[in-house]
Design goal:
- This protein has about 450 residues and is of the alpha+beta class.
- It has one domain: Outer membrane efflux proteins (OEP).
- The chain contains nine helices and eight strands.
- The strands form three sheets. A four-stranded antiparallel β-sheet has the order 2-3-6-7, with no helix packed on it.
- The protein is elongated.
Length: about 450
């Protein structure tokens, strides 16, 4: 047999290590802190909310610009009709009149054109505070948009954290199912060997094989659910879902706690804060609409020049300039009245929305706190159930070794233990989700919110 050269063996080992490190580097390792950071930066909902803030900033700038001077330029060229001009010069007309020159035609119409250009400046100098109310309304709307963006980001982070915890729970359930499947397969092998020796009836072999197949099926079901939740997590985080979830490594546990006690005050929640700012914006908007019924005063200045050109070289250039004040008063305007009524109704809607949001957030905070207490109690019960199921398995194993029990009794005890372990995992996952709900109800979720 040919023995590989040591240098060749070293090269192969180096290549395998490089490939292994490359595949490891490509895997996406997700921790709870990284999931929160990715959700804040890349979640589609958070990005859309940030874009809405940019829209609100542009609307605020437009409101501010309404109180600034505006300058417009204009130019116009148009035909001016026909102008009657003498065909002869003044000297020729004199000769014609004196009879020294024969003249049959004294005048004829010719074409002309008019061109004009100008610049106009207009500046709103007084409007009973309508512009100030408009700017204040847009400022409040911008502040509400920013707070609403924080709330949208908060919701995106909450969904991502819950999916992360679901994936962690999936992985634990997969391990529970795999342990049971391995135990069932070992028991099937032992039963087959004992049946071959004549110590076990063939019915036990069949029952052990069925139990092993059922356990293997449960493993595949658990793995499929884990893949589904991983893909959902990638989608929420704005990562490449098409690349699949096989390269996603989740590093975390279900023992999540709040790093500091949550402050459950409805007034601090982004939904309530945004609704309060919306109400202030609607109030300023109603004030602006009411003041729209009052007169406005604009300062104006204009510079214009017009030129009339004809077929002859003659041309008439007329410059002009002027300054002044203009007064506008919508004494009868159905659109202004309709705007005022709509603004007043919008203010009432904003006030009621603020009341509804405050009540809803307070109720959600109480529900989340009560849910957390209930889930913690369920975790305690599930822990006791798992301990009791493990004790039952140990007793049946001892009786089986002593010949006082048969295989079906052990299979039943192991199935009860696997169910108890799955119940404990689900209870811990539900408790972790309840912790997240409490944090969401407080209105603050970031990398420093959770511990454990």
């Amino acid at each position: 047999m040919r023995v590989p050269h040591p240098l060749h063996r070293s090269a192969v080992v180096a290549l395998l290590l490089a490939l292994s490190s490359s595949s490891t580097a490509q895997a996406e390792t997700l921790t709870l802190a990284r999931v929160i950071a990715l959700a804040e930066a890349q979640a589609p909902d958070a990005q859309a909310a940030a874009a809405q803030v940019a829209v609100a900033e542009a609307q605020r700038d437009r409101a501010v610009a309404q109180g600034l001077p505006s300058v417009s330029l204009s130019a116009q060229v148009a035909p001016g009709g026909q102008v009657t001009l003498p065909l002869l010069s003044q000297d020729e007309s004199a000769l014609c009149t004196a009879g020294n020159l024969a003249c049959s035609v004294g005048a004829a119409p010719v074409g002309s054109a008019r061109a004009s250009t100008g610049a106009d400046l207009r500046w709103r100098v007084f409007d009973f505070g309508a512009t100030d109310a408009f700017v204040a309304s847009r400022e409040q709307a911008l502040a509400a948009s920013r707070v609403r963006s924080q709330g949208t980001t908060l919701s995106a982070v909450g969904r991502a954290v819950k999916l992360f915890l679901a994936v962690v729970a999936d992985d634990e359930l997969v391990r529970v199912r795999e342990r049971l499947a391995a135990d069932r397969q070992r028991q099937a092998d032992v039963v087959k060997a004992r049946a071959a020796a004549g110590d076990t009836p063939p019915s036990d072999v069949l029952q052990a094989e069925v139990a092993a197949e059922a356990a293997a099926f449960d493993v595949e079901v658990a793995r499929a659910q884990a893949r589904v939740d991983r893909v959902a997590l990638l989608g929420v985080l704005g990562l490449d879902v098409a690349a699949g979830s096989d390269g996603v490594v989740v590093d975390g546990g279900l023992d999540v706690v709040l790093a500091t006690p949550a402050t459950l005050d409805p007034a601090l929640h982004p939904d309530v804060r945004a609704a309060r700012l919306d109400e202030a914006s609607a109030r300023e908007g109603a004030l602006q609409a009411e003041r729209g019924r009052l007169p406005t005063v604009d300062a104006t200045a204009s510079v214009n020049a017009s030129l009339v050109a004809i077929t002859r070289p003659d041309a008439n250039l007329t410059p002009s300039a002027g300054v002044g004040l203009s007064l506008a008063w919508p004494v009868l305007s159905f659109s202004v009245d309709a705007d005022a009524r709509a603004a007043a109704a919008n203010r009432i809607v904003a006030e009621k929305t603020l009341q509804a949001r405050t009540v809803a957030v307070a109720a959600e905070q109480q529900r989340a706190q009560a849910q957390l207490v209930a889930q913690e109690a369920l975790v305690v019960r599930a822990t006791r159930l798992r301990a009791s199921a493990q004790n039952a398995v140990d007793i049946v194993v001892g009786r089986l070794e002593a010949g006082a029990a048969r295989l079906p009794e052990l299979l039943d005890a192991q199935a009860s233990l696997a169910a108890a372990e799955a119940t404990l995992v689900q209870a811990r996952a539900a408790r972790a989700a309840a912790v997240v709900d409490v944090a969401l109800a407080s209105g603050t979720v970031d990398a420093t919110t959770f511990g454990g």
